[in-house]
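User: quick one, sequence for these tokens?
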């Protein structure tokens, strides 16, 4: 019996995905989250989750950073990105960072159902209208290298890196993760070595390279 986590802050779109999931597989179980923090908490509490449908721009998620976080902390869970952004290069980047598929928010119920069914069958899924353009979009060497370096981090190291990118100091990170400050320093040393960063500023910048501006929130001048 597959378990699906629908991660989106829009109730109506969550309902559409839930309807598609009900058609995609018999006896599928679904749970929902409205922020990235809720996604992480749910995956911690429910290790049986097989697939996450992750909104690219939900609260707490900044583009591909949330995808990278889930792939690092829960490598056994498949992640499909859901977004109104249909730029083939963004889709290509998502695949390079470990996404199992990509569902545009313009997709119909049938495409959503097919995507869920395909990924649960351990297949990669892209919208038919974008497959040609995405296949022609070249992988960025920097993205490919960054994905490999981030994948080398342990789940706890990635948590430390994410908090560094937020600007937290070592003591604040230690308090947040309920560990000793010397443990945070040891994690940082390993993070710097794996990412090829000289200091915490560089390490934070590396993670922020995954941020993608939400087109819906851009203000026209």
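Assistant:
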């Amino acid at each position: 019996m597959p378990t699906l986590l629908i991660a989106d802050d829009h109730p109506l779109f969550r309902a559409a995905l839930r309807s598609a999931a009900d058609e995609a597989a018999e006896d599928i179980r679904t749970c929902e989250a409205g922020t990235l923090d809720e996604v992480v908490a749910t995956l911690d509490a429910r290790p049986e989750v097989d697939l996450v449908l992750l909104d690219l721009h939900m609260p707490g998620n900044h583009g591909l950073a949330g995808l990278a976080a889930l792939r690092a902390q829960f490598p056994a869970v498949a992640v499909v990105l859901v977004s109104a952004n249909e730029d083939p290069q963004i889709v290509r980047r998502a695949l390079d960072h470990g996404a199992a598929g990509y569902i545009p928010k313009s997709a119909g119920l049938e495409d959503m159902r097919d995507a869920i069914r395909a990924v649960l069958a351990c297949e990669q899924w892209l919208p038919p209208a974008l497959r040609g353009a995405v296949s022609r979009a070249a992988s960025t060497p920097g993205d490919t290298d960054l994905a490999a370096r981030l994948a080398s981090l342990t789940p706890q190291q990635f948590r430390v890196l994410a908090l560094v990118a937020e600007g937290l100091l070592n003591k604040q990170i230690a308090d947040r993760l309920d560990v000793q400050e010397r443990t945070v320093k040891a994690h940082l040393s390993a993070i710097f070595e794996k990412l090829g960063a000289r200091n915490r500023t560089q390490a934070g910048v590396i993670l922020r390279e995954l941020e993608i501006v939400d087109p819906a929130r851009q203000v026209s001048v």
